[in-house]
């Protein structure tokens, strides 16, 4: 049992918050891979390369979230079935295989994750007394904010 100054009950609640985030991150990673593999159009090459950069970043974020769960003494959810049960996102591609469609969906997903994180930070800090995870969540949120801004800029 981890003795890190946070009660087991609070660590379990924080692990739930992080498990949902991990599921969201993994679904977004998969959707970004899909965009990379299946984008079509006159801007194919540049967007194909950009999507690769994005999924490489997301792979790192997925790992960081899973490791944060482990660092507070819990196991990270790690099955596709569990991710789909926990995520706020949909895995479906509804807007077509062009860059504008994929980018629009990815913006929505990044913004949904930003909102979830923003709603979770105070709870993690105040209710569960885990300032370390609150700080971690703030850092992940800032990464999503920057990516969402860059994606939105493609749509103008």
UniProtKB/TrEMBL annotation:
Q: Which CDD domains match?
A: DPS
Organism this protein belongs to: Parapedobacter defluvii
Q: Matching SUPFAM superfamilies, A to Z?
A: Ferritin-like
Q: Where are the transmembrane segments?
A: none
Q: Which family does it belong to?
A: Belongs to the Dps family.
Q: What is this protein called?
A: DNA starvation/stationary phase protection protein
Record's PROSITE patterns? Answer: DPS_1, DPS_2
Pfam families given in the database record: Ferritin
Record-annotated Ferritin/DPS domain positions: 20-156
